[in-house]
Amino acid sequence: MFRVFSYFSNGQSDDNKQKMGKPMPLVYNIDRKLQLNPKALQVLQSIEVPMVVVVMVGAARTGKSYLMNCLAGDKKGFSVDSTLQTHTKGIWMWCRSLPERPNEALLLLDTEGLGDAEKGDSQNDNLIYSLAILLSSVLIYNGQKNIDQRSLQDLHFVTELSKRIQMKAQPDDCDSREFVRFFPEFVWVLRDLTLDMHIDGKDVTPNEYLEHSLKLKDSEISEQDKEYNELRRCIRNHFPSRCGFAFPTPTFRRKLKMLQDLEDKDLDEDFVKERQKLINYIYTHKKVKRVLGGQLVTGRRFAELTKAYVSMMSDGVLPCVESSVAKLAEVENQAAVNEALKIYHNEMEKNSESDDLTMNGITENYRIKSIEALSIFHKRSMNNNIDKYIQQLEETMRSTYRSLMTKIKEKSQDQCKAQLEEVMESIKENLTSGHYQKPGGYQELKKDLDNSIKEYEEKTKNQIEGWAVLNSFLEEEKSRLDQVQEMDNKLTEEQKRVSDLEEELSRIKEEMEKMEQNRKAAEERRAKQIIEQIKKKFEEGKKCSMEELKEAMEHMKSEMEKYRVEGREEDAESAQQIYEHLKKKHEETTKWSFTNFIQKMVFQVLFPFLKGLVGNPFSS
User: Fold this and answer.
1) First CA to last CA across the chain, in angstroms?
2) Using CB atoms within 10 A of its CB, is residue 533 exposed (0-12), middle (13-18) or buried (19+)?
3) Alpha carbons 374 and 256: distance in angstroms, whole number
4) Residue 195: Cβ within 10 Å count
5) Separation CA 394–CA 367 (nearest Å)
6) Which helix (H) or strand (E) holds 111?
7) Secondary structure letter of residue 215 according to DSSP
8) Do 302 and 53 form a contact (C-beta atoms < 8 A)?
9) Which of 203-207, 295-299, 523-527, 612-616 is the least confident region?
10) Is the pLDDT of residue 36 over 70?
């Protein structure tokens, strides 16, 4: 009947394969309250790719689960039954692969039926379907027979969404103008259609039939007329795109109870063709789920989003899109920081255990590993309030770097002092005993000192504290060394004026300055790379927002033109106002300047530690 595709067939654990071999409940509906299934959330959190989220809604006992099994490519998936009792309670999920789109997954959500007599609670329906709107990227309405006022009435919850979904944390009367930015695509599936697809004597497609059915009445005299038009306005204005499919009755009535077991040869040919059209539509053309702002939703993000919405509904609070996205970003960004730091710490600790460390090597390793950590952070993070998380990541990496450097320096100092003590032992004894206090003594001292310094430099050539320890020793012994030089009566007046020791100290300090200059240069390169990564993230976020707004604008422009063709000037004007609102936001987004953005980040967040990076890395 269908090819079977499982998302967990590649690269996932056997445990997850077992979990998603069949559907599982995502949202329980217990005593008219929504509760989440922790096991389902655990499965979702393991999915790292973006998802196309298809939600099926419709009246109870109309074959929604059968159609979802068709989309899943498996006859035995969501519970299907031919009795009067409903089987699906709450929302069930099933994650599948998209064969032609290996970097995306298909998440199917099957909802309990509208108008279930066993529940007898329209409020419950509104909760379920408000959640369906918020979670889906494609909303399929499974209708019966033909499109008429009765079937449209089953979608009455759409007209109340502005009362049940809050767009902003600080709501206003214009919230609903933003709905088109995050609403799913709308697919109307007509089941058991017996009427001919003709309008005014012409053959029409399911799409044309749907558009015809969504036209407004010319007048709104009665309350029924107003309700009739309001429902159609909401569908047209809120959903960014819509599509229709018309299914004839699949087989004889007596065989319907065995529908899930029938082969294609036992079904109506037109039914099979239309079913395949729907499958192809979902598998090949549909975009993935995005949150407000256009950022992609992976399984992990979907789990967090679901938790946020269900938590608000359970608390009796209107689910807020803006607040939920902010909460999702908070969780994602903190997790991104933790993930980046974990890898960074492991890599830096591993590097610090080596006995063959140079200042240039450590500085370069810090630059490379911190940039890699920032790249890991950007891969997972969201753009919302990203600056404070970059600050947290950078400050923690700097703190780790300083801590490791302190340990490395202490270890290096101990090793260098031990080496220096060994090579300078005889010189210090001779200085103490006054051995060099004789004619020609300074020349002997100079020779001994040169040999010892060369031996020391060879033994400590890879020690980061080698020069510093040597410099400290020579500074400490300078007075005694100078005394030997002063008492050597064989030195010429010129030699007395220019101290060989001072030349040696000057050479050592030059080497130390070179090391510092190299470190500063490396940190300046790192700072530029940080800015480049932030710019890339900024541009990605800007592009997502502009694409989202452009799609919404194009839809409203199309609706505006349709209203005008229908002679609905007032509705056309209303659609134009929404269009202008979206256009203004698009223009504002277009003007987003990375220069202004980064200036704010540099001076308010990044600048304090970027300034420190090109200064002393060990300063407080």
Assistant:
1) 69
2) middle
3) 57
4) 11
5) 12
6) strand 105-111
7) P
8) yes
9) 612-616
10) yes
Whose CA is closest to 160, among 238, 74, 53?
238
Q: Token pair for residue 457? A: 């430099």
Residues 6+ apart with CB under 8 A from 454: none
Structure tokens belonging to residue 79: 């519970």
Question: What pLDDT does residue 381 have?
Answer: 92
Whether 149 contacts 198, CB under 8 Å: no
> What's the average model confidence in pLDDT over 199-205?
84
Among 217, 201, 218, 197, which Cα is nearest to 209's?
A: 197
Burial tier of 198 (Cβ tally within 10 Å: 0-12, 13-18, 19+): exposed
Token pair belonging to 73: 């490519």
Cα gap 133→321, rounded to integer Å: 11
91, containing H or E segment: strand 91-97
Collapsed DSSP state (helix, strand, coil) of residue 58 = strand
According to the model, what pLDDT value does residue 315 have? 86
Query: Which residue, 58, 77, 73, is CA-closest to 276?
Result: 73
Residue type, 322: E
| pLDDT value of residue 459 | 87
Query: Measured between alpha carbons, how far is 431 from 329 in angstroms, rounded to an integer?
Result: 68
Please state, in angstroms and as integers, the Cα–Cα distance from residue 423 to each residue in 416, 436, 473, 481, following that order: 11, 17, 12, 16
Confidence of residue 614 (pLDDT cuts 50, 70, 90): very low
**pLDDT band, residue 240 (cuts 50/70/90):** confident
Local structure of 444: helix, strand or coil: helix
Radius of gyration in angstroms for the set of CA atoms belonging to the chain, rounded to a whole number: 36
Confidence bin at 152 (pLDDT 50/70/90) = low
Using pLDDT thresholds of 50, 70 and 90, give the confidence band for residue 8. very low
The reported pLDDT for the residue numbered 450 is 87
At a CB cut-off of 8 Å and minimum separation 6, what does 46 contact?
12, 13, 16, 299, 300
Supply the pLDDT for residue 20.
Answer: 55
Residue 103 pLDDT exceeds 70: yes
- Mean pLDDT within 563-592: 91
Q: Match 């599509």 to its residue by tokens.
A: 243
Q: What string of DSSP letters covers 379-422?
A: HH--STTHHHHHHHHHHHHHHHHHHHHHHHHHHHHHHHHHHHHH
Query: Which H or E run contains 569?
Result: helix 569-590
**What confidence score (pLDDT) does residue 9 get?**
38
What per-residue confidence (pLDDT) applies to 301? 95
User: What confidence tens digit (pLDDT) does each residue in 312-331 have?
Assistant: 988 888 888 988 999 999 99
State the burial class of residue 567 (Cβ atoms within 10 Å of its Cβ: 0-12, 13-18, 19+).
Answer: exposed
Q: What is the 3-state secondary structure (H, E, C) of 262-311?
A: CCHHHCCHHHHHHHHHHHHHHHHHCCCCECCCCCECEHHHHHHHHHHHHH
Looking only at the bridges linking them, the beta strands covering 138-144 and 51-58 are parallel
Per DSSP, 43 falls in state: H
Angle separating helix axes 594-601 and 500-565, nearest 10 degrees: 130
Does the structure show a pLDDT above 50 at 2?
no
Any idea of the CA torsion for 157, 161, 163, 167, to the nearest 10 degrees?
Answer: 170
Cα–Cα separations (whole angstroms), residue 432 to 129, 427, 437, 446: 92, 9, 10, 16
Which amino acid is residue 229, in one-letter code?
N
Average confidence score pLDDT of the chain: 81
